[in-house]
Specification:
This protein has seven helices and eleven strands. With 264 residues, the protein is an alpha/beta fold. It has one domain: HUPs (Rossmann fold), CATH 3.40.50. The strands form two sheets. Strands 9-8-7-10-6-1-4-5-11 form a nine-stranded mixed sheet, with helices on both faces. Strand 7 and strand 8 form a beta hairpin. Helix 3 packs across helix 4. The radius of gyration is 22 Å and the shape is globular.
């Protein structure tokens, strides 16, 4: 079984997110990157398929060169190989251009794949678009919010969480298929320091000269969506009031204030 794990080298936390005021895109160059936390759920999901049915797991990421460390960490979890597609022409890509690049990389480096596994979303953009869009570019079915799967011949039986009802559904889908894993649904295995150190120098890096994608289809030029305006949100001034007195009078005072502002 050939599993492709899609992963993003994300900005460490929301406080570190910076937006280019000219392009409206996320600034990642020159910023330390880490594994997108929800991709560790996807990695665990992919590795469990490998544990049960054999085969290999290949991690694939489109990122600046600093994204190599995140891929090495995934190899520390047990991923067999890792591919980084990195080129300045990919900078500023929206989800559609990103998905196009990833899909073309899959077709080139893992054309015989059975399952593509993705995390539900990323912590630094939270769109949850890329998995479905990659599946669309590849022309394969996809399913979101997956929590478990098993192979049945050339089909995949996928259990997914039905978010609105809190129920579990089971789907049988012919492979190849893309599966997006629900965040928080797995208990990711540890990253082995030994395996991570052994991964040094093993991440394969390719540029657009290797993929040969049209410049007008990737990066900022290939992105149909734009950020029209970026501004800093200003928090409203809050006025605090302090009541001093017995608890029963404090409760009546608070209830009156809440009615006054229309909360109750």
């Amino acid at each position: 079984m050939k599993v492709v794990l899609l992963t993003k080298a994300a900005v460490p936390n929301v406080t570190a997110v910076r937006i280019d005021p000219k392009t409206g895109t996320l600034v990642r160059e020159g910023v330390p990157l880490m594994i997108n936390p929800w991709d560790r759920d996807a990695a665990e999901f992919a590795l469990r398929l490998k544990d049960r049915y054999g085969g290999t797991v290949m991690a694939l990421s489109m990122a600046p060169p600093a994204g190599k460390d995140a891929l090495e960490s995934l190899m520390g979890m047990g991923v067999d190989e890792a591919v980084l597609v990195s080129d300045r022409v990919y900078a500023g890509a929206d989800t559609l251009a990103t998905a196009y690049t990833l899909a073309k990389a899959i077709e080139k480096f893992a054309p015989d794949f059975d399952v593509v596994v993705a995390g539900e979303e990323t912590t630094d953009s939270t769109t949850a678009h890329v998995g479905a869009q990659v599946a669309s570019w590849l022309g394969i079915p996809y399913i979101y919010y997956a929590i478990d799967a098993e192979v049945n011949g050339r089909s995949l039986l996928v259990r997914r969480y039905l978010e609105d009802e809190g129920l579990i559904e089971t789907y049988e889908i012919d492979m190849p298929v893309l599966v997006s894993v629900q965040k928080g649904s797995q208990v990711p295995r540890d990253i082995s320091l030994v395996r991570k150190l052994e991964a040094k120098g093993r991440v394969k890096t390719f540029s657009n000269s290797d993929l040969g994608l049209p410049a007008e289809c990737v990066g900022l030029r290939g992105s149909p969506t734009i950020v029209a305006k970026v501004f800093e949100a200003k928090l409203p001034q809050r006025k605090g009031e302090l009541f001093e007195g017995p608890p029963d009078e404090a409760a009546r005072w608070l209830a009156a204030k809440l009615r006054e502002v229309g909360v109750v």
